[in-house]
Amino acid sequence: MTFSVLAGLKKFNIPHKFVVKNIYEYYAKWIREGKLKVNSDWNKDLKVKFTVQDPCQIVRKTYGDPIAEDLRFVVKSVVGEENFIDMQPNRSNNYCCGGGGGFLQSGYKEQRLAYGRLKDAQIQATGADYCIAGCHNCHAQIHELSEHYGKGYGVVHLWTLICLSLGILGPNERAYLHDDLKEVNVFHPETEM
Amino acid sequence: MTDLPIRLGAKKESSTFLEKVKQILPEGGNLNSCLTCGACSSGCPATGLENMDPRKFLRMAALGMDEEIQKTKWVWMCTMCQRCIYVCPMQINIPQLVYNARALWPREQRPKGILGSCDMALRNESRSAMGTSPEDFQFTVEDVLAEYQEAQPEFAGMEAPIDKEGAEFFLNQNSREPVTEPDEMLPLWKILHLAGADWTYGSKGWGGENYCLFLADDDAWKQITSTTAKQADDLGCKTYLNTE
Known about the structure:
The complex is a heterodimer of chains A (193) and B (244). With 193 residues, chain A is mainly α. Chain A has helices at residues 2-11, 23-32, 59-63, 65-79, 109-115, 117-126, 136-148, 158-166, 179-182, and strands spanning 19-22, 50-52, 130-132, 154-156. Chain A has one domain (22-191). Chain A contains nine helices and four strands. The longest helix of chain A is centred in the middle third of the chain and has 15 residues, at 65-79. Chain A starts with a helix and ends in an 11-residue tail after the last helix. By secondary structure, chain B is mainly alpha-helical. Chain B folds into two domains: 13-105, Orthogonal Bundle (Fumarate Reductase Iron-sulfur Protein, Chain B, domain 2), CATH 1.10.1060; 112-241, no CATH class. Chain B contains twelve helices and three strands, in the order ααααααααβααβααβ. In chain B, strands 2-1-3 form a three-stranded parallel sheet, with no helix packed on it. At the A-B interface, helix 1, strand 1, helix 2, helix 5 and helix 6 of A face helix 5, helix 7, helix 10, helix 11 and helix 12 of B.
């Protein structure tokens, strides 16, 4: 969306008064300003490992490495620096997962999974338990890669982990967490549905 | 014994697909600057699919093989991720060549899934690829908000406004959450609440996805972006905030 809005405004000369931003930048800003008091204590002993996908639309195609740095700052703040493992290559030089450009809806499933083999190999090489995917297409594709190629790593949104680290993640907001994190730091556990 | 010679440049140079695309791109997309080094193809996850790769696609266009360019399904397997431009010493815009090759397909013959999602977004002013109406969106947001304000009293004062005039941030929302997993909207709302962000959704143009771009349908893409831009401006929002 970031890309389609920015590119569309420019391509079609659509008048507008606002600036277009991505929320990663604000997550990082709000953490630095102390508005989001995140910490990684919940993972000090658990040592659950995370890697992160750089969404092409947000990083390479729009804001470049500075937003990739913001993304890493947020991730490290919430899971602990020692529990973050970057995939290689990364940032603007990362590979597309194969979920974008309409590939997920195109009907070419076999080719899409073949395309994603590289992404799965990158993630497997990190040994991470979870891949953070802050984009829905990436999320759906990497989830399918994890099952198809058999490694079974989890795929989570960034907002889930921010709230987990803030101690405000309820029991019904954990659809993408595996059993290892279902019971950790639960906010209002009595409301479980 | 000898094969028939391959005829190159059968068409007038100015009328080839490559030349047409060059005319609409800034700097002609550098489409004539290829050194054939192969950096694009060696780092492209779509290399090998449909016996194609970015360098080959560009070379075929340069050689005027427009019929093959128009036929290959590979244009729907390249995600236009732009890694090829990133690694290219000449910054050649192969993804724009792919985008324009998609547009050569008759609209009704383009992949059904992408076509359907684009058409859904044109159905109403939500511009949601799932066709969700502004009323259904509003109902879901209000319903889920009320449920959580009660279940998590620390957030009783939390808001999820729609069409709040003068809010700083105009936030869009991928339809997947309100339609299929509404509980997933909560973490984002809670973060915005704790950060003290002054934000709003729009009843028009809240849909956070755009399949018309992937469909290479310029008119529809323009319509979607215009709806959401106008709503953000009408509400006086200074920042258009994307979650993805």
